[in-house]
Amino acid sequence: MAKSPAELAQTMIDNMPEKTGKSLEDWQSIVAASGAAKHGEIMKLLKGEHGVTHGFANLIAQKCIGNLDVSEDDLVANQYKGKEVLKPIHDAIVAFVEQFGSELDIAPKKTSVSLRRKKQFALIQPSTKTRIDLGINLKGVEPQGKLEAMSGMCTHKIKLSSLADFDAEAKGWLEQAFERAG
């Protein structure tokens, strides 16, 4: 199974001294001494003045501003602040995909939850106070029924405003996307 975002970050932190010449704590001290406080300022400092690669610079910046110190449960809870009415829809989607087995990876982010197999096949995103957009990767499939075209990481989306909207059609599209991601 794929590593969680926290596991991936920890691997990078463990490799940081070898790859960058300094530990995370050393880099955090450098950033603190510089006075840089915003993500962009920290990135500019690390990449421009210290030659740190983008991936490591981003990780260091995220750690410095505290973005990676939030648990996955907190990330999801924060997505639904002021949108609590949508949380049962989210929970129903997660309960459904958990039946797909051990190849499934559920990865909460700041504004969405990525569903992955070998690659991302869907994305749960509370887009408004009254709607979740269930992004689905189904390249080459024509939009039909609830399935709308979308651009970006996901090729389609299904708008969900109630538990009833997460019906057999929506579940079928989600299953198809999971199968294609294998």
CATH architecture of the largest domain: 2-Layer Sandwich
Estimated structural class: alpha+beta
Distance between the termini: 12 Å
Q: Find the CATH topology of the largest domain.
A: Yope Regulator, Chain: A
Number of strands: 6
Beta fraction: 15-25%
Number of domains: 2
Helical fraction = 40-55%
How many individual helices?
A: 7
The overall average pLDDT, rounded, is: 91
Q: State the shape.
A: elongated
Q: In the CATH hierarchy, what is the class of the largest domain?
A: Alpha Beta
Q: Over the alpha carbons, how many angstroms does the gyration radius reach?
A: 19 Å
Order of the strands making up the biggest sheet: 1-2-3-4-6-5
Low confidence ranges? none
Order of helices and strands: HHHHHHEEEEEEH
Question: Tags for this entry?
Answer:
182 residues, alpha+beta, Yope Regulator, Chain: A, six-stranded antiparallel sheet, 7 helices, 6 strands
Topology (elements, then pairings):
Layout: H1 5-20, H2 24-34, H3 39-50, H4 54-65, H5 72-79, H6 87-97, E1 105-108, E2 113-116, E3 120-128, E4 131-136, E5 148-149, E6 156-160, H7 168-180
Antiparallel strand pairs: 1-2, 2-3, 3-4, 4-6, 5-6
Helix pairs in contact: 2-4, 3-4
